[in-house]
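I am writing to request your help with a piece of structural work I have in hand. The matter concerns a single protein, recorded as an amino acid sequence and a row of backbone structure tokens. Could you please explain, in whatever detail you think fit, how the structure tokens follow from the sequence? Thank you for your consideration; the sequence and its tokens are set out here:
>
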Amino acid sequence: MVLDTHESETERHGDFLIAGVAHRGTEVDESALWASLDDYADDLDAHAVGTDYYSVMFDVDADSGEFTYVAGREVDSADDLSPELTVVEIPEATYAVLQPDYESIDEMILQIHEEDLDHTDDDDGVRNPIFERYETRRDPSTHADREIYVPVRDD
């Protein structure tokens, strides 16, 4: 099993914006995507909230396996950002905090969506984004010691 969801901690988190570079597909070259974020460092630094980095996974198509992956930073506003950057709203929700063991992002995304977790925060069927947070000095292109936040329904 890629994810251990049976004994995960939960926490209330969200209501912030992530801006970064995006890729849509079934596979992600994380190292290349994170390297391309450097092209927007000045723009992101000017709007960044804190020093953490994030990856966000959303808009998963269960039939094709395609998903959108954004590598970026938390920002205070989407105003005046480069139009090449993608902005994702992370809604406030209760998230299971997981420490996955996986070989690739696409493997992780598919496994999460196969788990018996309810990824909706309301009854409209819209799935909230899944995100990872990296501390300032951490290399987000490595796989070790990641925490992933998966939205779960509040009951």
Summary: Confidence is low (pLDDT under 50) at residues 1-5, 116-125.
